[in-house]
Write a structure and sequence with these properties.
The complex is a heterodimer of chains A (about 325) and B (about 325). Chain A is an alpha/beta fold and about 325 residues long. Chain A is built from 11 helices and 14 strands. The chains are: A alpha/beta (about 325), B alpha/beta (about 325).
């Protein structure tokens, strides 16, 4: 993934997000942060630790506990030429700001031409025993709301590059950062400024037999399953969407045209998820090149349960992907 | 406030200008209502009939660089901000020449160059947004002010409270108002809140508040001026409750049979245009013949707008696909 010889020492996914924020704030004085406990405390996950001291209380604002209020405020500040980045303490709480996001931010430019350049950071996903209110994957709600861009990186490189691109984009972007990955993955990043453009998927593993299309923490599960499947002679191609809106249909279609078989994997509930939409697109546009059914691997339609055995049962596992791949390989 | 004090506080030309906008608002919205009854306007028609003094008063009190995030009965504010009758009627008629090019209807229009945020039907949604504009002014150290508001119904929304609280905590340069016109669609005040005055809510945020006669354009203007001055000096937000009465239905399709007739009769005597004329008369600034001249002048302004709008092309259809996203890496 690292494209330069001048790589720095390894940084975690969390540090990559923090670096992106810091560098964008240093680069552009219009960029400022708002959220609950992001100042003095440095954020629930410590992503903005030290930012208050460095940038001051008018660029790192601790807000009242009122997601709708501070997302609305970000919209107004964005229209006045600033570049707000707001933090949801947990992506689950984004439901409190749903109306501001879908009715105001998303429709503003379409309705009356006022751009809303803002980013909402949303720490999402399970595997951390957070229970029904601290584990959610709410991207599906916003996937259906025209006017929003949605990003979900899986590596430190993508996390940093996509956040920078999101901050520089003239539209409202929801940046889904996966909590499970924060301190679990590390990689070396280029020293110089770089972005990962929105709307471009990335083939994380080239393969010939089955296309596995996914995003977020599930990318790593997919790579693990791909590794296991090599012993059985099944060669998985892992496509990391990276951006959900705009969706990179070109990369999806070219992978599927090559392999003729597809697994759609996500951590959000199965019904009405991103996988459902991609399945429909493939049925419409790539029907003639499919050699087997489109298979979805996703959690059942329940809230994310708390107790470890329950959550483990809920979340997709590498073994689920392996059995899905075996079935598909038989076609 | 007695007449002599008003003469001291408000310039003659400013008062006459406000009278002009009261008449223009009334004439424009009466014409819109007539077009609706003729079936030439589709969709909702939400007027400020009998409440014109609120928007005319507060918008007149602002400076050019200030920003407003109006509510749906603030037509006078659009006019004062430079929206022409032609643009407004084109908006009502869904024409390409309207401020939203047909993407949205009636009072749902905005223009950043004129410092007007587009109205969002979800009442009170624009209050946090307005607060954010005020935050931008504070961060940049600008002396600009934001004026925003909603109705008595909108004051029940969470966004109303979240915005007022945040603005008070950060002492942001924003003025909040409530157009208390007694009814939210068909719901009377007594089913909306258990307090006698909406302004009571301001206390909970440590914010000064004031009750103002919403049908008295001079009173609205002076109260707005006071609140704007406080905001501009960095002393934070103020809440203004403009007491008035909704004289028509929620929208023009609604005959509002749920409103007692005697209540309407009572408020008819307090009509903002009548009040303004009485004041101008007492001040010696204008009399019947002057009022007639203004009425004729605004009528021709409205008719020119109707002509412009009706001659403007309708959108063709496919352009509805445009504008979901802003283009370019950096549009500012």
């Amino acid at each position: 993934m690292v494209t330069t010889a001048q790589a720095t020492e390894e940084v975690s996914y969390l540090e990559a997000i923090s670096q992106a924020l810091d560098e964008e704030m240093a680069r552009d004085e219009r960029v400022f942060l708002m959220g609950e406990d992001i100042g003095t405390y440095g954020g629930a996950f410590k992503i903005t630790e030290g930012f208050l001291q460095k940038y001051g209380e008018w660029r790192v604002l601790d807000t009242p506990l009122a997601e709708s209020g501070f997302v609305g405020a970000a919209i107004g500040a964005a229209m006045m030429g600033l570049r707000p980045v707001v933090e949801m303490q947990f992506a689950d709480f984004i439901s409190c700001a749903f109306d501001q996001i879908t009715e105001v931010a998303a429709k503003n430019h379409y309705r009356w031409g006022a751009a809303v350049p803002m980013v909402i950071r949303a720490p999402f996903g399970g595997g951390v025993h957070g229970g029904p209110f601290h584990s959610e994957c709410p991207e599906g709600w916003f996937f259906h709301s025209p006017g929003l861009k949605l990003v979900a990186p899986s590596t430190p490189y993508d996390a940093k590059g996509l956040l920078k691109a999101a901050i520089r984009d003239p539209n409202p972007v929801i940046y889904f950062e996966h909590k499970f990955l924060y301190r679990r993955i590390k990689s070396a990043l280029p020293k110089e400024d770089f972005i990962v453009p929105l709307g471009k998927a990335d083939v994380k593993r080239v393969g010939n037999d089955i296309s596995l299309i996914t995003y977020g923490a599930m990318v790593h599960l997919a790579l693990e399953a791909a590794q296991a499947l090599t012993k059985e002679g099944i060669d998985l191609e892992v496509v990391d969407l990276r951006t959900l809106i705009p969706l990179d249909k070109e990369t999806i279609y070219s992978s599927v045209r090559k392999t003729s078989k597809v697994i759609l994997l996500h951590e959000d509930n199965k019904t009405g998820g991103i996988g459902a939409e991609i399945a429909a697109l493939l049925a419409e546009d790539c029907f003639d090149c499919l050699d087997g059914p489109i298979v979805r691997v996703a959690p059942p339609d329940t809230p994310v349960p708390f107790s470890p055995p329950l959550e483990e049962f809920f979340l997709p596992k590498a073994s689920d992907i392996v059995s899905a791949a075996r079935k598909l390989a038989a076609y | 406030m007695d007449v002599a004090d008003i003469a001291k506080e408000i310039k003659r030309d400013d008062l006459l200008q406000m009278y002009h906008y009261l008449r223009l608002t009334r004439a424009l919205e009466e014409r819109v209502t007539a077009l609706y009854r003729q079936g030439r306007i589709v969709g909702g028609v939400y007027t400020s009939h009998g409440m014109e003094a609120i928007a005319v008063g507060y918008a007149s009190a602002l400076e050019r660089d200030d920003v407003i995030a109006p509510y749906h009965r603030d037509m006078g504010a659009f006019l004062i901000r430079g929206f022409t009758t032609g643009e407004i009627l084109a908006q009502y008629l869904g024409r390409r020449t309207g401020p939203t090019k047909g993407k949205d209807g009636n009072v749902h229009m905005g223009d950043l160059r004129r410092g007007v945020f587009g109205f969002v039907s979800h009442l009170a949604d624009n209050l946090p947004v307005a607060t954010g504009a005020a935050l931008a002014f504070k961060i940049r150290g600008e002396s600009r002010v934001v004026f925003t508001g909603t109705g008595d119904g909108g004051s029940s929304r969470g966004d109303f409270h979240e915005a007022m609280n945040f603005a008070a905590v950060r002492k942001l340069p924003v003025v909040f108002f409530c157009n208390n016109n007694q009814y939210a669609y068909s719901t009377p005040l007594r089913l909306q809140m258990a307090i006698p005055n909406v302004v009571d809510r301001a206390k909970a945020y440590g914010m000064p508040g004031e009750i103002v006669d919403g049908n008295d354009v001079a009173a609205v203007y002076l109260a707005a001026k006071r609140a704007i001055a406080i905001a501009r000096e960095g002393e934070g937000p103020t809440f203004l409750e403009f007491k008035t009465m909704r004289m028509h239905g929620h929208s023009e399709h609604d005959p509002a049979k749920y409103v007692p007739r005697e209540l309407l009769e009572d408020w008819k005597q307090k009509d903002p245009i009548l009040k303004a004329e009485r004041l101008l008369g007492e001040l010696g600034y204008g009399e019947e013949s002057y009022f007639q001249r203004v009425a004729e002048q605004v009528k021709s302004e409205v008719e020119a707008g109707v002509e412009f709008a009706e001659q403007s092309p309708l959108p063709e259809g496919p352009e509805m696909l445009e504008g979901v996203f802003a283009d370019g890496a950096d549009s500012y």
